Amino acid sequence: MSDTIKAIRGMNDILPLDTPHWQHLERVVAGTLGAYGYDEVRLPLLERTELFSRSIGEVTDIVEKEMYTFSDRSGDSLTLRPEGTAGCVRAAIQNALVRGQQRLWYQGPMFRYERPQKGRYRQFHQIGAEVFGLTGPDVDAELILMTARMWRELGLGGLTLELNSLGSPEARRCYREELVTYMEAHEEQLDEDSRRRLIANPLRILDSKNPAMAELIAAAPRLLDHLDDESREHFDGLCARLDAAGVAYRLNPLLVRGLDYYSRTVFEWTSTELGAQGTVCAGGRYDGLVEQLGGRPVPAVGFAMGLERLVVLMRQAGTEPTHHIPHAYLVMVGEGVGVQGVALAEQWRDAVPGLRLTVHCGGGSFKSQLKKADASGARVALVMGEDELARREVAFKDLRGGAPQESVAVAAVAKRLRRLVTEGMTHPEVTEVSA
Ligand code: ATP
Ligand code: MG
Question: Does ligand 1 lie within 6 Å of residue 112's CB atom?
């Protein structure tokens, strides 16, 4: 087995036992986005490298060390998308979607060359939303309230909303000077990363995860105390809406987010149940980015959520989606039974909305087929042999409740299956008798 090919480190297969959780998550999130008036866009996984260096910023973890970048056969530098916002903005500009107002969402895999660990992978999945053309705190609030609703619908309690404002570019410039003065006065306490950031992107020092830096950072001047009037008003407007809707938040002046392009609102949803990688959703306003990428000056705000981490929380919360388990499993043995059986199965699927019916393939004895039926988790086995076929009957064998096997006329099977789907009961008569 030494020469079998394995997946790339940090790139995971999502296997049949996991996909029901993913599908449930994707259904709930996509459903909520649709209900709030967001339209889906599907974007390429590959973009020109320049798109990311120009939008995310040269001095960020992503652009400095996390991108999968390569030259294609004509020598163009391409990069597997590390996040969705840059591509979404590129597409919006290119397709003239940045006129007026747009509410968009996207989903799919993202790629970052990170050190793989729990909750941090090299291929991971996000669902993100971006709104173009709206400046006010109303839409910032909408995005946050929408995510809060998603967590409720997914049964995820215990998530904390952290909130900050990065102010206007001018306010941030003033603050930046003050922060640099402060950090320079304590230069001997700065780690290597922070020294580099001090010159290129000092705000990102606040983002440092190095415990040795924590004290210095906690005592640093705060951007929230230096907001320009308009940003203050914007932030107050956002908080007022969250208060009115009953969504709790925690002000976190150290929340600056890894990316360069944010302005004003930044937020994160975090969990204490995930260890070190506790952020499940992060977003904010990026009013300058569309223009920076060559579009008209159009304000924008958005978020992205990490699906791997949300799936872990769903599992921990005990949500067990079971929709992949069949209601019924059709067992067929004997001359000509397979041909008739598959035709009947198609008729039942036509007649019974929502029916999950697995038809046995591959032949074998009754015993071995019933074993497969049992392993499938189905509530009932529909058993057809030559005798049943001759009598135009199907035997219903209860696989879960131990009720006696029962013969049902072919003409009555659809009705029985409908009851199984709607009531989830294999043998209603038996239940009635014992009640
Ligand atoms: P961090 O500071 O943890 O590296 P980030 O700022 O790089 O996070 P974002 O770019 O904001 O993360 O991505 C939004 C969300 O996507 C994160 O909150 C997280 O849930 C998820 N995410 C980001 N990177 C990864 C990864 N490598 N593996 C799994 N999920 C990820
Ligand atoms: Mg990161």
Answer: yes
Question: How far, in Å, from the CA of 306 to the mean position of ligand 1?
Answer: 6
Alpha helices in 56-212 (DSSP H): 61, 85-94, 137-153, 169-185, 192-200
Neighbours of 224 (CB within 10 A): 20
Q: What is the pLDDT of residues 239-253, one digit of tens each?
A: 999 999 999 999 998
When pLDDT is averaged across residues 50-73 and rounded to a whole number, the result is 91
Residue 312 pLDDT > 80, yes or no?
yes
Residues facing residue 374 across a β-bridge: none
Ligand 2: centre distance to CA 61 (Å): 6
Structure tokens at 123: 């291929």
Whether this prediction's pTM lies above 0.90 is answered by: no
Helix (H) or strand (E) holding 168: none
Please give the distance, rounded to the nearest whole angstrom, from the Cα atom of residue 62 to the centre of ligand 2.
Answer: 7
CB 357 within 8 A of CB 345: yes
Tokens of 397: 């064998």
* pLDDT band per the 50, 70, 90 thresholds, residue 323: low
Report the C-alpha gap between 142 and 155 in whole angstroms.
20
CB 396, CB 416: distance < 8 Å: yes
